[in-house]
Design goal:
The structure holds two protein chains of two kinds. Chain A is α/β, with parallel strands linked by helices. Chain A contains five helices and eleven strands; from the N terminus they run E-E-E-E-E-H-E-E-H-E-H-E-H-E-H-E. The model of chain A has no long low-confidence stretch (mean pLDDT 95). In chain B, 37% of the residues are buried. The chains are: A alpha/beta, B mainly beta.
Chain lengths: 239, 197
């Protein structure tokens, strides 16, 4: 199912935050994906040089049009191409969907807590979109930590999730919106407890973000009483 | 040439024969874990091997440190496509561990604190190919990287080098562990790009 590289054509590119873009790609033969899965992308330069990277999918389902959101990594090799140079009609290759654990199934009635650091929101948005589009009655709550409003991927869509039955909470680590009355700073245990589902409802918790963020949050969740096996993580970057 | 990505030039590095296909070099040490980092006190840490003969052999932390220690200088390759060259580890060879164990089975399921498992053939664990590693770059292995001790099987993709290792269960047949049940390859040779099931 995942053995072959599939040609993919970029069909749209739009900015979504100060250094990130949302891309849609048309992938004939794409087998569809589950909320939370990722894929590999391969780029080939004119002289045959290739680079491969993994990215989370921002949506799920059976469509052969897929969506990615890519945050530019300073000094990165592949993300600057997507954020600065990619345009409709460009072609890449993809392999996937990949991953079977960091996945939300709409048949699971458990409450779900999603916790995102920065661009870690991408696979979690896929889960929230799937929940909003499904007949699932599973309670779902999304906590997103960003440096500032301008750094938030999918800011408007995340804000609109509240009207689609998903509770939304924000953490601003550097500066909040003008009207923001909450605290500004990195998430702490009290803030986490106040803005996430209680361990007493035994939520399935998905945490995605940079390694230091995920390490800190996952540790606090365990301290708050969440069973470690109910906390699923996806990390990017070094420790 | 087919499948050119217009506008992509990439950042050339001289081709390095130490880097397997589809991998890129990093000086960073990225982390791949399915859940929270378990906190394991070395005083509570145990490593056990259970065999088909009904015996379980167990080592404490001080037992482990009392065994012959080896310095390992090796390259590591993660299935998420980063490779890191020239890493330095210290630990106990699986040959030393298995010398104390009587088993005829050809496969092992590796078990970890935190509940995760991965399957590795004994042919990949013996013969100077695998260690119980407890130091990285001359310092105690950090919990986020698998401390107090992780399996080190550097010739396979790095998810096989299970963090927070707690033991082996000998098996007659190969059977998929945690990651292998979740889409990753049974074996995981980076030179053959055995990435996905």
């Amino acid at each position: 199912m995942t053995s072959d590289w599939l040609p993919a054509t970029i069909t749209s590119v739009r900015p979504t935050a100060s250094h990130a873009v949302v891309l849609t790609l048309d992938v004939p033969g794409w087998a569809g994906s589950l909320p939370g899965q990722h894929l590999d992308v391969r780029l080939t330069a004119e002289d045959g040089y290739r680079a491969e990277r993994s990215y989370s999918l921002a949506d799920s389902g059976s469509s052969t049009t897929i969506e990615l959101a890519i945050d530019e990594i300073p000094d990165g090799e592949v993300s600057p191409y997507f954020v600065r140079d990619a345009r409709p009609g460009d072609t890449v290759e993809v392999k996937g969907p990949l991953g079977g654990y960091f996945v939300w199934h709409d048949t699971d009635p458990s409450p779900v807590q999603l916790i995102a650091g920065g661009s870690g929101v991408v696979p979690l948005l896929s889960m929230a979109r799937a929940r909003a589009a499904s007949s699932s009655a599973a309670p779902m709550r999304l906590l997103t930590s960003v440096r500032s409003p301008a750094d938030a991927l999918y800011r408007d869509e995340i804000a609109a999730l509240a009207a689609r039955g998903i509770d939304v909470d924000w953490i601003y680590t550097r500066s909040g919106p003008e009207s923001w009355a909450g605290r500004v700073g990195r998430v702490d245990a009290a803030g986490l407890a106040a803005s996430t589902l209680s361990p007493s409802v035994r939520p399935l918790v998905f945490v995605c973000g940079p390694t230091p963020f995920v390490e800190a949050v996952a540790g606090m969740l365990v301290d708050l009483g969440h069973p470690p096996l109910r906390v699923r993580t996806e990390r990017f970057g070094g420790a | 040439m087919a499948n050119i990505t217009r506008g992509f030039t990439g950042r050339r590095r001289a081709p390095d024969p130490a880097v397997p296909p589809g991998q890129y070099l990093t000086d960073d040490f990225p982390v791949l874990s399915a859940g929270p980092t378990p906190r394991v006190d070395p005083d509570e840490w145990r490593f056990s091997v259970r065999t088909e003969k009904g015996f379980t052999t167990t080592w404490t932390w001080s037992d482990l440190l009392a065994l012959p220690q080896e310095e390992v200088h090796t390259d590591i390759h993660c299935v998420t496509r980063w490779s890191k060259l020239g890493t330095s580890w210290r630990g106990v060879s699986l040959d030393t561990i298995m010398a104390a164990v009587d088993s005829d089975f050809a496969y092992a399921m590796v078990h970890c604190y935190g509940g995760y498992t991965t399957n590795v053939p004994m042919a990949d664990l013996l013969g100077g190919q695998a260690w119980i590693a407890h130091e990285f770059d001359g310092r105690a292995l950090e919990p986020v990287h698998g401390g107090p001790a992780r399996l080190l099987v550097p010739h396979l993709y790095f998810w096989k080098s299970a963090k927070w290792v707690r033991g082996l269960v000998m098996q007659k047949k190969d059977a998929p562990g945690f990651w292998e049940q979740n889409g990753y390859h049974r074996h995981g040779d980076p030179w053959r790009e055995e990435r996905y099931a």
